[in-house]
Specification:
- By secondary structure, this protein is an all-alpha fold.
- It folds into 3 domains: about 1-225, Four Helix Bundle (Hemerythrin (Met), subunit A) (Up-down Bundle), CATH 1.20.120; about 235-305; about 310-380, Arc Repressor Mutant, subunit A, CATH 1.10.10.
- It is built from 17 helices and no strands.
- The chain has helices at about 5-15, 40-45, 60-65, 75-95, 110-115, 120-135, 140-160, 165-170, 180-200, 205-225, 235-250, 260-265, 270-275, 310-330, 330-340, 350-360, 365-380.
- Helix 16 crosses helix 17.
- It is elongated.
- The chain starts with a helix and ends with a helix.
Length: about 375
């Protein structure tokens, strides 16, 4: 790749255009060329950036590092995935012979999905390094384990790097103001590494085709976790996203964004569209700045009636709790009269005549019990 071509691609990205990163970038087509290399792990990314990149933003430095890396051919990709799976099997067999249970190397949630061949690569590397640090292996077996671990990490790193451009292409489709774009890329990298753990080259599919779903899943989960304080079901969020997309498309076509037009455009039932549009919108923090200089927040513009004094709320709650405890210490009849008189049992305040009728007492006796209860409360309060 020439330097001129490199900077032209990078500048297009930094301008936030919607152009694809590369004509070679695969999406769902299994016959396209794999993406380029870049590291997904912090130790792989650090130190590779040249001194000239230090003045840019993290996103600029990441992209410049990404485009300096080479591509893998489909044959190289197949060879790498087969070698990675072979090295993984050898490492697992060696660890199992040394007393490491296979269940401790399983990826999280594998049993729930019914998969039988997915192991956590991070756990495999950690267990192998712990075994090497224990100094319990014979010299020959120790050398073999070191060689296997070094080749395993190199193959895994190479496969991760060669598909990071695919992660960026997928993350572009899910840009959201609530989540920084570089965070979406990192979530996609997590999905990429999960795909590497579960991919089986003997099935005959291209790795980029298989990884597409896992990358997309992790990005969507990250968006759902950050959307609202009240979590909505995944199908509801997907339908809402389709409705909001349809609103902009319908308006761009010169039509009103009515419920009927939205239902026809999205393929959802009219009742479904109407019920989803009645749901409350996304929540936001009152401390969120409303200006670029961050000098003012939403709280500064909130109506005074909607503001609550936190100290006052806490004090009132504490007083209410102390009152409930004091009333509980009163004799049963006095406590009942007091609760009926001030509506502590129900929302209605009762007169002494009604209290007397309910308890089978005279009006005057009910008033006396009320006075005795107040005197005891005053003594407790002191």
């Amino acid at each position: 790749m020439s330097r001129e071509n490199f900077y032209s691609r990078d500048d297009a990205w930094l301008k936030d255009t919607d152009e694809p990163l590369s004509a070679d970038l695969p999406a769902e087509d299994s016959e396209s060329t794999p993406p380029t290399e870049a590291s997904a792990e912090p130790e792989d990314l650090g130190g590779s950036t040249e001194t000239g990149d230090s003045g840019g933003t993290p996103m600029q430095n990441y992209l410049k590092h990404l485009y300096r890396l080479d591509l893998l051919t489909p044959e190289d990709e197949h060879t790498t995935t087969c070698m990675l799976r072979e090295l993984e099997d050898k490492l697992i067999a060696l660890l199992n012979r040394r007393g490491v249970p296979l269940v401790e190397l399983r990826s999280e949630g594998v049993e729930q999905r019914g998969s039988t061949g997915a192991y956590d690569h991070g756990l495999i590397i950690a267990r192998a390094e712990a075994l090497l640090a224990s100094d319990t292996l014979p010299k020959r077996e120790r050398s073999s384990l070191q060689s296997l671990l070094r080749r395993f990490r190199a193959s895994r790193k190479k496969l991760i790097q060669c598909n990071l451009r695919l992660v960026i292409a997928i993350a572009k489709r899910f840009r959201n103001p609530s989540v920084p774009f570089i965070d979406l890329i990192q979530e996609g990298n997590v999905g990429l590494m999960k795909a590497i753990e579960r991919f089986k080259p003997q099935m005959g599919y291209r790795f980029s085709t298989y990884a597409y779903w896992w990358i997309q899943q992790e990005i969507q989960l990250a968006l759902r976790r950050s959307d609202d304080l009240v979590r909505q079901p995944a199908n509801v969020q997907d339908d809402l996203r389709a409705i909001y997309r349809a609103i902009s498309e319908v308006r761009a076509g010169g039509l009103p964004a009515s419920d009927e037009n939205l239902a026809q455009h999205t393929g959802l039932d009219l009742e479904r569209v109407q019920s989803l549009l009645k749901l409350p919108g996304p929540t936001s923090s009152l401390d969120e700045p409303v200006a670029d200089d961050q000098s003012s927040t939403r709280l500064d513009y909130a109506p005074a009636d909607d503001l609550y004094n936190t100290d006052e709320l806490v004090t009132n709650e504490e007083l209410a709790q102390r009152l409930r405890e004091a009333v509980e210490r009163l004799p049963a009849r006095q406590r009942t009269v007091l609760c009926l008189r001030y509506g502590l049992i129900s929302d209605r305040d009762c007169s002494f005549r009604v209290i007397g009728e309910q308890l089978g007492l005279s009006q005057e006796r009910a008033r006396q019990l009320h006075s005795d209860a107040l005197r005891q409360l005053k003594r407790q309060w002191r």
